[in-house]
Amino acid sequence: MSTLVEALLEFIAEASTPFHAVSAMSWRLQAAGFQPWDGVKSGDFQPGQGYFVTRNDSSIVAFRVGEAPLSAGARLVGAHTDSPNLSVKPNPLKLRHGVAQLAVDVYGGALLNPWFDRDLSLAGRVSFVSNKGQLHSELLDFKRPIAVVPSLAIHLDREANSQRSINPQRDILPLLMGIDDETSLDFKALLAAELVQQYPEYENVEVLDFELSFYDTQAPALTGFNQDFISAARLDNLLSCYVGLSALLDADPSQWSFLICTDHEEVGSTSAAGAQGPMLLDVLKALSEDDAAERALRNQSWMMSVDNAHAVHPNFSDKHDDNHGPLLNRGPVIKINRNQRYATSGEGAALARLIAERNSVPIQSFVVRTDLGCGSTIGPITAAETGIATIDIGVPTLGMHSIRELAGAQDPDFLKQLLVGFYDRIA
Question: Does some domain include residue 47?
Answer without folding.
Answer: yes
